[in-house]
Amino acid sequence: MANYIDGFVLPIPTSRLSRYKRVVDKVAEIWKEHGALAYFEYVGDDMILEGTLSFPEALGANKDESIVFGWVVFDSRETRDRANEHVAADPRMHDLLKPLTDPSALIFDGRRMAYGGFKALTLSQ
């Protein structure tokens, strides 16, 4: 059976990556409590391939921002849908995300995040 994933990519101020990571480590545990099989976030390292639109370009990232690419793995879309509801209602998430979205020291801007749910097209290991 193929898994279902939520994928996302977003810019984060490079100077605030360590603070973001501390929050994400806690966020990942909450997602797993609510049904995620795995949670991954990676920071961009090699972002340019000639002839293609890069993630920084697509997101309008500034030179002082890093690109974070992540995905959350679920056993099915149904599990993902339930997890999304539970995570959105979990007060710990609100407490964790509040400092990241403070306008005076914005780290995470959801309007600049690309997101989507994905079903398997091909599986190869």
Structure write-up:
The protein is 34% helix and 26% strand. The protein has one domain (4-118): Alpha-Beta Plaits (2-Layer Sandwich). It is built from four helices and four strands, in the order βαβαβααβ. The chain is globular. The chain is α+β, with helices and mostly antiparallel strands and 125 residues long.
Number of domains: 1
Q: Count of helical segments?
A: 4
Going across the major beta sheet, what is the strand order?
2-3-1-4
CATH topology: Alpha-Beta Plaits
Order of helices and strands: EHEHEHHE
Helix content: 25-40%
Category from helices, strands and their pairing: alpha+beta
For the terminal residues, how far apart are their CA atoms? 14 Å
Rg (CA only): 15 Å
Oligomer: single chain
Task: Identify low-pLDDT runs.
Answer: none
Strand-residue proportion? 25-35%
Instruction: Give the number of DSSP strands.
Output: 4
The level-1 CATH class = Alpha Beta
CATH architecture: 2-Layer Sandwich
Mean pLDDT metric? 92
The largest pleated sheet is described as: 4 strands, antiparallel
Global morphology: globular
